[in-house]
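User:
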Amino acid sequence: MFYEALPSLYFINKILKIYVPDSTYITLKSYSYIQPVNQMSIILGQNLSKEAELLIACARTSCDDKYRYKIEDLIESNINWQYFMQIAMLHKVMPLVYTNLNAVARSSVPKEVLETLRSLFQRNAQKNLLLTGELLRILALLEQEDITAVPYKGPVLANSVYGNLAMRQSGDIDIIVQRSDILKVKPLLLGLGYKRTQKLTDAQELAFFQSNREHTYDFIDDAKQVLIEIHWRITPRFSSLIEPKHFWNYLKPQAFGSRTVNSLPLDYWLPILCVHGSRHCWERLGWISDLAELIRRHDIDWDKTINFASSLGCRRMLLLGLFLASELMGTVLPQFVIQQIQAESQIFTLATEVGTHLFKPDNAKAKFMGTTLYHIQARERWQDKAMYLQSFIDWLVHPDKWNWSNT
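Assistant: Predicted structure:
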């Protein structure tokens, strides 16, 4: 059934594909990826605001002299601080921004701006401590019930990538379980005072779990203002095929707070984070910072990482994420990884699409079409392109089908 969509998919790719001028492509080929040096204009365009440049310079934990000088120079260029703080929060890099501005240019940043950032930093640290305590409480309960669970993103990622809970903005708690355990989690969370974000009948719930468009079972505690997403997939199936079964046998223990928790191996973290970022068209700089810090702080088994991504059809998403980290954050990649990026002409096209919208408000209609084309191009296998396109057409034809309260 999926393959019936292939002629239309081929037509869309041929007619609507965004082509890169030959001169730009030559620049990409000749560019040295070993030590990226301020080539942000390649994918972000020539009209990048001073505030966006400052944000990129600050969105890192390792701030060498090059970035220190850049931060100092940009601060002297009449920054719109209100807008800057807004995009720092929007892109989920506020803790990194505050830390670097406080360390590099404390005397140059307006006092009220630094005080506001300090307050936001402290509030984020308190929120992450709350989420950590709640996460550990839930993991302990699941362990008592013999339910294997893996904390995903959130505080655990902050600890693994940054070594400090306060250095990453987290909004909720994500936990991965196997599909067979998903309904066992429900009464446990209800017993803790959480409630479902959607009220579904048994029939609706069954359809919900069978849908290719769903991947989390969500609960909320209104009093604590904590949202929990219980994953039985990493993303909707049409977005990626990655499920717990693909890495469950490779889980390893990791010290976290007062407990030892199950953790994804680093070789699987990278593709999974890239799939997540790609699903959202890399609309937040913080996701790219996560990749850069993960690579900087840890030794990656690149062969295993790329083979895992290739086996599940997300190699291009992985390479795109690595290219963005290299271009925007200066991440140093192995030469053979660079060669694989250079061999994929679509990577530069996709990165340019990401860069075009990263710091600019979008026309909703243009973004809608651009996002659809992006997702088709981000997949290297025809069957995955067809699955995405079929899901997209199904959504267009039956928009109410996915409103579970109406099924």
